[in-house]
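User: Quick sanity check before I run a bigger batch. Here is a single chain. Can you write out its predicted 3D structure?
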Amino acid sequence: MERRRTPIRRAGLAAAALLLVGGLAACSGTNTVVGRPPAATVDGHEISGAELQNLIDANKKYLQAISSDKTNGASAKTELASFSGVNENSASTAKVADLLTQLVVYQATIDELDRLGLKPSKDDEATARDSLTKSVGADVIKKAGQDLVDFSVKSSAASKALTDLVTKEAKPTAEQVQDAYPAYKRTHPLCLGLIFTADEAAANEAKTAVQTGEDFGAVATQMSADAQTSEQGGFAGCATIDQATQTFPADFAKAKAGDLLGPVELPAQPDTGQGATPVSWALIKVVSLSGPTFAQAKAQIEAQITAGTAATDAAAKRQAAILKRAKVTIDSRFGTWNPKTGKIDAPS
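Assistant: Done. Predicted structure follows.
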C-alpha cells in the first residue's frame, strides 16, 4: 500500500559537482598544470592532462558564475581564492590532486561496472542532466561549460549504477531490522487488507462472502485481481490515516479494527507504460489501528534499510575495495596514489 521514492545514495563520487561549491576541487584558468599526458592511468586507461585542465577551467567558470549569487557567492569567492597557486599561472597542488582524484574514482567505477557487464543507463544520465539544469539554472550551466556538466552527469549515473548494484547485494542484519521496528510501527498505525476487483459486482460478491462468515484472507486469495496482495491474504501494508485516504476514497477516521469499508471505486491511475491495470474497485478491511506485527513489517523495514544505511555502507565498502585493487599511476607533478585512502596525496 505504501508508495515511496528510494533515495539515491552516492558512493563517494563527485556526483553533484554543480550543486556543491567546491564539490570538484582545483581551479585555474591556465594550462600550466597540464603537459605531458597522461595525468593518470587507471588499470591501463589514460586520464589525459587535457581532461584535467578542461575540468579545472570549467570549475573556475562555474565558481565565477555563482560568485554574485546571494546564497553561494561568498563561498564561491572563498573557494576561488583557495584554488590559487603560487602565482596567477598556477593552481593549488592540493586542489588539483583533489580534482584528479575524482577523475580516477570515476574511471575506476566505470571499469568495475564494465567488468560486471554493467553500465550507467541513458535514463539515469538524462535524469541527472535535468536535475542539474533545474537546480542550478541553464544560464549557470552554460557559463560553467560542457566539460563540467558532462562529468557531473556521467559521475552521477555511474554512482547510481554502483549504488543500485550494492543495494541488491546489501542485506540488513536481524538486529538492525528489530531495532527499526518500534519506530516503523509507531509511524504506520493503520494496516489494511484489500481485495481488488475489476468491477463493482465482483467487489460486492467478495463483501457478501466475508459478511456471511468466510475468512477475508481466503476470499482475497481466491478473488483479488492483484497478485501481490492476494498472495498475502489481502494484506497490503500499513500507513497513516492521511496516507490511506489519499490512496483510497474511504473514511478511515472513525474506523475500528475488523471493519469492512467499501467497495470503493479507485481513482484512475496514469499509464506507466506497462499497460493499464484492470483493477478499479476495492473492498477494504481495517486489520489494525496500532501498527503491524513484526512479521508483517519485516519485509518493508528490510527494504527501507537496504535502500538507506545498508546500501550506503555497502556502496562505501565496494568503492573502497575497487580503489584499493585498481592499478593507478599518477604523474608525479600531481602527487602519488594512496590505495588505502583512495585519494591522491598532493606533492609537498
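The longest strand covers residues 190-197.

User: Great, the batch can go ahead then.
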